[in-house]
Design the sequence.
């Protein structure tokens, strides 16, 4: 990059991420970047800059050859898809923060880069301010990985911290997260686990060379969390974290899953609180390493976008080394067994899930709490039923491959 020339940026979106990037560049006068055009959707919306600073026509920005690179920072994944793919077809250099866009369309985005010579970076799409994609892509490029797991959603983690540290009700903790800008007015993507699923799909491509479709990942969240579930965790000396995990089985198959999990004092993720994210990368030779950083907020995510802006202007692009190295795409380990806790008022749900090694933890007039084993295939097949039933499901350990015995409750065998 020629440090004597100011590089011009076209920015799509001026919400939390877009404003975060704008504010950082306004403060860091020594950086050779200038946001030349800002494209937004709603002309009537009140913004902190004069109206003449904005464009309302995406085509105007896409067609401007004077712009050196484009940054996409809008929330609507469908609109983001149109902008990013149009830019790549023009051979443009593009940075995006939209994890849903990348998760659903990564194979197509790879093909467009190859065909038209454009470049797409998306560090800000996963784990906020943690440079986890670049770390997995570069540092672990030649080391086989055994597992990548962690807390990938700062909003849900903030809510859980308020519940366990300050004994706040779920509704109050959610409202506080929304007031602080950590959670959207419609928080479903965050609290239901869908946002973590999108990020896990992206990480899996870089860590294991498998472009997962989101539909291949079972995901569950904290939106049905109740007082009985909290008491179960406390009685077992644990808190609850929403954990996204992908690991290799000894047979070389992968297990991708997003699931609330019991986390004890010895767990690396126990120290990850509030709006922070934490990712544990376990190398075949280097062992587990924890990466921790803010996962929500304009400045942390804006800083991740800026890192991509600097890298892309210096000619960097992802090499997708694990994708290139693989001889065959890892299959899903559909028969992999996970030990879970389930609270449900639907007696048919256990039968649908093919629960086995079942133990009743607590019976009540309105629902039963049960511990047992279930396969990955069963979770995939029944995840909608679990959500529709308002049931809450929880892994007994954040290490899904190593079940944790529940000792604090007297178990009763089901007849």
Sequence:
């Amino acid at each position: 990059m020629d440090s004597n020339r100011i590089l011009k940026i076209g920015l799509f979106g001026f919400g939390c991420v877009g404003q975060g990037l704008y504010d950082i560049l306004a403060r860091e006068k020594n950086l050779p970047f200038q946001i030349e055009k800002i494209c937004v959707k709603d002309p009537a919306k009140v913004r902190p800059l004069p109206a003449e600073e904005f464009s309302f026509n995406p085509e105007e920005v896409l067609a401007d050859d004077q712009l050196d690179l484009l940054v996409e920072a809008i929330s609507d994944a469908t609109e983001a898809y149109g902008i990013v793919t149009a830019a790549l077809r023009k051979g443009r250099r593009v940075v995006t923060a939209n994890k849903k866009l990348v998760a659903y369309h990564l194979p197509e985005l790879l093909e467009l880069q190859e065909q038209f010579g454009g470049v797409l970076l998306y560090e800000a799409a996963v784990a906020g301010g943690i440079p986890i994609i670049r770390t997995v892509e570069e540092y672990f490029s030649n080391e086989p990985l055994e597992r990548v797991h962690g807390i990938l959603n700062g909003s849900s983690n903030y809510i859980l911290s308020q519940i366990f540290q300050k004994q706040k009700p779920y509704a109050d903790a959610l409202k506080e997260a929304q007031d602080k800008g950590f959670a959207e007015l419609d928080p479903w993507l965050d609290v239901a686990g869908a946002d973590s699923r999108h990020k896990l799909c992206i990480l899996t491509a870089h860590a294991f060379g498998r472009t997962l479709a989101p539909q291949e990942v079972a995901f569950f969240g904290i939106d049905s969390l109740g007082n009985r579930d909290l008491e179960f965790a406390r009685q077992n000396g644990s808190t609850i974290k929403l954990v996204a995990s992908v690991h290799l089985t000894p047979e070389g198959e992968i297990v991708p899953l997003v699931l609330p999990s019991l986390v004890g004092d010895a767990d690396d993720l126990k120290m990850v609180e509030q709006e922070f994210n934490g990712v544990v990368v376990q190398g075949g030779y280097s062992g587990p390493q924890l990466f921790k950083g803010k996962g929500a907020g304009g400045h942390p995510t804006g800083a991740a976008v800026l890192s991509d802006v600097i890298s892309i202007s210096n000619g960097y692009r992802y090499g997708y080394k694990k994708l290139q190295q693989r001889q065959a795409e890892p299959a899903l380990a559909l028969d992999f067994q996970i030990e879970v806790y389930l609270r449900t008022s639907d007696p048919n749900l256990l039968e649908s899930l093919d629960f086995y090694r079942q133990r009743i933890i607590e019976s009540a007039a309105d629902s039963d709490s049960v511990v047992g084993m279930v396969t990955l295939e069963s979770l995939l097949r029944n995840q909608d039923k679990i959500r529709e039933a308002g049931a809450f499901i929880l892994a007994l350990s954040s290490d899904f491959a190593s079940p944790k015995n529940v000792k604090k409750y007297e178990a009763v065998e089901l007849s």
